Amino acid sequence: MSLLSPSPRLSVSPSRLLSAALALLLLATALASASEAPTPPRLKRADSFLGIHFDFHAGPDCTEVGKNTTPR
């Protein structure tokens, strides 16, 4: 059996093949247009915010964490 010979298990109707091709074309078009989106304008320093985040992972030996904080 040749790889190019028709097989009843692999038969696809032309309309389904066309639908699949159009779906792939729409997907490719959407992905291409999304990657070409313009970047937003740069904010002025007065309109910007810088946030810094520190992670502290307490271990079993950290028994006095929060000792000097203000109680609520």
Task: Give a short synopsis of this structure.
By secondary structure, the protein is mainly α.
Notable features of this structure?
mainly alpha; 72 residues; 1 helix
Please give a structural write-up:
The protein has one helix spanning 14-35. It starts with 13 loop residues before the first helix and ends in a 37-residue tail after the last helix. The longest helix has 22 residues, at 14-35. The mean pLDDT is 81. It is 31% helix and 0% strand. It contains 1 helix and no strands. The protein is mostly helical.
Sheet with most strands: none
Number of helices: 1
Work out the helicity level: 25-40%
- Mean of residue pLDDT values: 81
Topology:
Blueprint: H1 14-35
